[in-house]
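Morning. Coffee machine broken again, so started the prediction first thing and wrote up yesterday's gels while waiting. Chain of 77 residues, entered below exactly as on the submission form.
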Amino acid sequence: MTESLEQRVQKALNVIRPQIQADGGDVELVAVEKLTVKVRLMGACAGCPMSAMTLKQGIEVFIKQRVPEIEKVEAVQ
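Came back before lunch.
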């Protein structure tokens, strides 16, 4: 049985999550809508001025490597 897009994205997040947690933050999958992943940044990431860079250059790049059909990753509240 093939994994859903959401399951594959969650697996990718589970791989990168320990690195984010090491800096006092966390990331939670909120939804996969069409080919856009919506995540919630938590902990230290929530108010960090570097969170946009973490999201785009870290989380988004990693998810796209693991799940190439994903077009973008957005942070939601």
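The longest helix spans residues 5-22. Going to sketch it on the whiteboard this afternoon.
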